């Protein structure tokens, strides 16, 4: 074989190397790198999709939980509201029986202190609401002020029947029905002179007693009453007038009015005497709207202390006989005109009213009346009553 030159060998080797480099270019690893990049991208996209799905699932779960929580809260609120409504409705049902029970009946009975006249007697009923829209407090104050004014006008007011003992008083009071005290006082001296004791009158001849009592009117009925009560006093009470209401009203011809006259003036036990004058005036003054004597007694008694009852009766009766007449009240000469709701029903001119005062014709003692002009102010209206201001 021939010897190769060194140059040729280097050329050959050089050419061989170049051929190898040309034959195996560096581009072969590129596909692997590209494949790896594609795989990573796919993985990242898959991971992103997974995260997105997880986020969406988490959001859905949270939304579902919030909805459930909201529904639970609404349900709880509805339960609380229903419980509150049930609780609110329950007292109304319980209160229904109380509403049915008329509370007015409980308070319609006047306080025991005001209506218990004598121990052992049932209290009468009083008016709960004063007439005319006046408050209870205002009514009490006005009524007591009227009594104070009348006490100044009639400081010596007393029973106008003449008597020396309880027996004479009970007989005279029975005789005073349907007549005047003056007529009774003109009749009883002859009666008591002939029959001074219950024993004497119990044994009396009815015809003789009738003849004595004839001037008082209804003399036959009155004779029967006074003889009958005298017999009852002798047979049941040893000839003495009892000092208890329940005993007095059992006597013939004796009712509550007569009994309270006797108790208040013979025994010093407080009582209200509801005669025709008393009934007329307390309604005129709007102390009560009652018409039954027992109810008037209870209603008026509830306005005053028990200790005032007897004197109050005298004040009202005296005023009714002298100034506040049934047909022609002397309003222009009335000391309580500023306190009277009925002012103006009678004569308001002071001079004309003065002529209507009946006490001036009989000279009744113990009265302190101011001159008629003193009852009116400069404008002709009722002046403040005595003691005002």
TrEMBL record:
Residues 1-133, 362-389 are annotated as: Disordered. Gene3D superfamilies: Helix-hairpin-Helix base-excision DNA repair enzymes (C-terminal), Hypothetical protein, domain 2. The keyword Cell inner membrane does not apply. Its EC number is 4.2.99.18. It catalyses: 2'-deoxyribonucleotide-(2'-deoxyribose 5'-phosphate)-2'-deoxyribonucleotide-DNA = a 3'-end 2'-deoxyribonucleotide-(2,3-dehydro-2,3-deoxyribose 5'-phosphate)-DNA + a 5'-end 5'-phospho-2'-deoxyribonucleoside-DNA + H(+). Signal peptide: none annotated. It holds the Pfam family HhH-GPD. [4Fe-4S] cluster binds at residues 324, 331, 334, 340. Residues 26-113 have a biased composition (Low complexity). Belongs to the Nth/MutY family. DNA repair enzyme that has both DNA N-glycosylase activity and AP-lyase activity. The DNA N-glycosylase activity releases various damaged pyrimidines from DNA by cleaving the N-glycosidic bond, leaving an AP (apurinic/apyrimidinic) site. The AP-lyase activity cleaves the phosphodiester bond 3' to the AP site by a beta-elimination, leaving a 3'-terminal unsaturated sugar and a product with a terminal 5'-phosphate. This is Endonuclease III. It comes from Streptomyces dubilierae. The gene is nth.
């Amino acid at each position: 074989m021939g010897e190769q030159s060194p140059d040729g060998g280097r050329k050959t080797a050089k050419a061989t190397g170049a051929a190898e480099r040309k034959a195996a270019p560096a581009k072969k690893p590129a596909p692997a790198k590209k494949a790896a990049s594609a795989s990573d991208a796919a993985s990242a996209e898959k991971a992103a999709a997974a995260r997105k799905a997880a986020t969406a699932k988490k959001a859905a779960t949270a939304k579902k939980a919030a909805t459930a929580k909201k529904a639970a809260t609404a349900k709880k609120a509805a339960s609380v509201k229903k419980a509150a409504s049930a609780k609110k409705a329950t007292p109304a049902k319980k209160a229904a029986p109380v509403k049915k029970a008329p509370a007015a009946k409980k308070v319609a009975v006047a306080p025991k202190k005001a209506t218990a006249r004598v121990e052992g007697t049932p209290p009468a009923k009083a008016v709960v609401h004063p007439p005319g829209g006046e408050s209870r407090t205002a009514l009490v104050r006005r009524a007591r002020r009227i009594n104070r004014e009348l006490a100044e006008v009639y400081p010596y007011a007393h029973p106008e029947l003449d008597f020396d003992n309880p027996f004479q008083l009970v007989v005279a009071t029975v005789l005073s029905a349907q007549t005047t005290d003056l007529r009774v006082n003109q009749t009883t001296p002859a009666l008591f002179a002939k029959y001074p004791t219950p024993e004497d009158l119990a044994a009396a001849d009815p015809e003789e007693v009738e003849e004595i009592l004839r001037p008082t009117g209804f003399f036959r009925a009155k004779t029967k009453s006074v003889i009958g009560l005298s017999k009852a006093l002798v047979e049941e009470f040893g000839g003495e007038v009892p000092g208890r209401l329940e005993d007095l009203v059992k006597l013939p011809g004796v009712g509550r009015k007569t009994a309270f006259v006797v108790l208040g003036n013979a025994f010093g036990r407080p009582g209200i005497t509801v005669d025709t004058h008393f009934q007329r005036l307390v309604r005129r003054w709007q102390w009560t709207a009652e018409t039954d004597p027992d109810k008037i007694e209870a209603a008026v008694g509830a306005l005053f202390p028990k200790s005032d009852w007897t004197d109050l009766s005298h004040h009202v009766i005296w005023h009714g006989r002298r100034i506040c007449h049934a047909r022609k009240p002397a309003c222009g000469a009335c000391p309580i005109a500023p306190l009277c709701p009925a002012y103006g029903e009678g004569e308001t001119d002071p001079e004309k009213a003065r002529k209507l005062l009946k006490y001036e014709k009989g000279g009744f003692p113990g009265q302190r009346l101011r001159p008629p002009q003193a009852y009116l102010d400069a404008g002709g209206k009722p002046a403040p009553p005595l003691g005002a201001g």
